[in-house]
Request: fold
Amino acid sequence: MNGKRILVVDDDAAIRETLARTLSRSGYEVIVSASAEDALSRIQQIDPGLVITDVRMSGMNGIELLGLIRERIPDLNVVVITAFEDMRTAVSAMRAGAFDYLVKPLDLDQIELVIERCFRDRVQRRRLQHLASEAAEPYSLGQIVGREPAMIAIYKTIGSVSASRAPVLVRGETGTGKELIARAIHFNSDDAREPFVALNCTAIPENLLEAELFGHVKGAFTGAVNDRRGRFALAGRGTVFLDEIGDTAPVFQTKLLRVLQEHEYHPVGAERGERTEARIIAATHRDLEASVAGGRFREDLYFRLRVVEIVVPPLRERRDDIALLADHILSRLAREMHHDARALAPAALRQLTEYDWPGNIRELENTLTRAVVLSRGQTIRPEDLALGRLTPSVAETEPSDDSLRAAERAHVIRVLKKAGGNKRRATRMLGVSRSRLDRLLVRHGLVAAPGPEV
Reply:
């Protein structure tokens, strides 16, 4: 569909001419039609980005035209206009799938605003459709892989937030792929061609973090022999990604808050501030609510960063994605390392899916990299993974060490007793999900395995 082409359908010539003249001045290509039948016969050839139709016309009316358009071209937005302001017509139009409903005499400024919203909506929906198709086959968005419901929800959030410039807070354990989420937001946004500038806040000494982000002028401190632009200046209208924001000092937090509030920062040693249009995406593995309560993180900054929040689940809570992730990683490693190892033996895959992955995807990638290096053929075997020598690995399907299995069983029983049989409390004490606890109970014979549904 042409994003600048509008089809106007109305049997009133004056309305057609007025809309065509006004919208053409605004840069749109306007094609007019005097009847719904004519519009429907031409719509495939015209390929408009939007249809504006009257309701009451001789022959087929606008609501009927709307219904046929929704059946044949569901992605095409339709705005309904009418001289009769009654609830029944409005309800019929909106239920039939109209993008908006306007009443004559038309406010031309209003209709231009509606048109702008239509085209923005179309761009956003196409972005969401792209993300959904990436998620469906092979359940991937760039380097992000997963088909668990939590991951599909993240894809949708990425699509929505990419259309805005709102700050985003990405939360999750170390190694879950928080930076990949941030990159996906940036590279699916309208400013994808602008820089994506990443900084791990814990990798820079506290006394240099401000200068690294905001820049400095010559002579601002010992060693500042020249002016230097900071990360915000380098980002332009792009994205500044601040990883491990929860570990920053209160003084820095105060200055970052000013950037979020005023879109302005001061290079170290400068007398005048500089404006920034960069979007901020922050990430942390910390419990920020606890940090706020303990006075270690500013509450106002917390709320400024958390306009949109994305929580990335740990790998142990998305076990059905492990096989997909392993296949994705192995394919990449095989290309990069020119190695034939591309498949997992069933026993090796079983080990991967039963291991708890405290290091999450990063640990899985490191484990598979080592396995590819050690393997001697096309198939990764359990001995190539060496998971039995890693800790904590508490859930091998067939442990080689019976004492480990017994110790695990005793620990689960002890925690359950301490929790008074309350499984929710036990999951918190064990640090596992409810589904993980249920599998442990079945595995150790503490409850019967569920039978088939009838």
About this structure: The radius of gyration is 29 Å. The chain has 19 helices and 16 strands. The CA atoms of residues 340 and 348 lie 17 Å apart. Confidence is low (pLDDT under 50) at residues 132-140, 389-402, 448-454.
